[in-house]
Write a structure and sequence with these properties.
alpha/beta; 9 strands; 24% helix; globular
Length: 180
């Protein structure tokens, strides 16, 4: 796997430091509240677990699974809800945890969905924000890193369901995904 990586953007230590910082920011933002923290499967599971360990306060955890890539390297433009949350969020404070926000389509879909369901508030925490790829208006409230418009893998991010288990975030060599 490591041989498929062009360069490492963020090491495990840099990711850990960002998770600690974000955990503190989230703790302050939700002081005295019990937010529903919703991880976006599958990419956000490592990140969500790590930031949750740094949040000093109560939270409820749930997951949603949506897809817009369908195994490719760019968004198809259509967001599909694969697995819904189990929690009633009406009147609740919601924190969506994403691995990466690039086009904004998935995030916009979730923001609209949770707003329609009557959430009191909906905020977003993303490890990676890729503003150069943004097509739809969707902003994050808590951001680990702003990243270049390159194809990234590792620490939950995948290409064709591979590379999620890398402990760092790296740029995938273009020949890996252009020859398939």
């Amino acid at each position: 796997m490591n041989n498929d990586i062009l360069k490492v953007l963020y090491s495990k230590d840099e990711i850990d430091t960002a998770c600690q910082r974000l955990g503190k920011e989230i703790s302050q933002a939700y002081a005295g509240k019990v937010p529903v923290v919703i991880g976006v499967l599958k990419g956000a599971i490592f990140f969500m677990t790590d930031i949750a360990r740094h949040v000093d306060g109560y939270m409820q955890i749930d997951f949603v699974d949506v897809s817009s890539y369908h195994g490719g390297t760019s968004s198809s433009g259509t967001v599909e809800l694969l697995q819904d949350i189990n929690t009633d969020i009406s009147g609740r404070d919601v924190l969506i945890v994403e691995d990466i926000v690039d086009t904004g389509r998935t995030l916009r879909f979730l923001l609209d969905l949770f707003d329609k369901r009557g959430a009191n508030s909906v905020k977003v925490c993303t490890l990676l924000d890729k503003p150069a790829a943004r097509i739809v208006g969707a902003d994050s409230d808590f951001i680990g890193f702003s990243v270049p418009n390159e194809f990234l893998v590792g620490y939950g991010l995948d290409y064709d369901e591979k590379y999620r288990n890398l402990p760092y975030i790296g740029v995938l060599k273009p020949e890996i995904y252009t020859n398939n």
